[in-house]
Amino acid sequence: MKQIKVKIYDQEYVIKSDESAEQLNRIADYVNDKLKEIEENTEGLSEKKMAILVALNIASEYFLAIKERDELSVNIRQRTEALLNNIESVMD
Fold first, then answer.
1. Residues of 19-46 as b/e, b for ≥16 C-beta within 10 angstroms?
2. Which residues on neighbouring strands pair with residue 8, listed in sequence order?
3. Which residues of the chain have pLDDT under 50?
């Protein structure tokens, strides 16, 4: 496990991870972008409250992505079954 420094909201953190430094920096950049987005759209929030809002926003995006993935998987399964049925009906 490597130790990698990332900077989030002007604070440096040392993260132990098997991820590459490039991936962790991409994640840190994403979190920073979300923090800036919250900061621009709200006034007077503490860093703690901003962090909680960012965590909620990222969790919401995550669950939406999971839902979309599941819907796509169902769609692919249905289309595959339909194609298999068409092939079987032609071969009969």
1. eeeeebeebbeebbebbeebeeeeeeee
2. 11
3. none
CA distance 59 to 17: 20
CB 38 within 8 A of CB 45: yes
Instruction: Give the predicted TM-score (pTM) of the model.
Output: 0.81
Contacts of 21 (CB under 8 A, 6+ apart): 2, 4
**Tokens 């900077």 — which residue?**
7
SS (H, E, C) the chain: CEEEEEEECCEEEEEEECCCHHHHHHHHHHHHHHHHHHHHHCCCCCHHHHHHHHHHHHHHHHHHHHHHHHHHHHHHHHHHHHHHHHHHHHHC
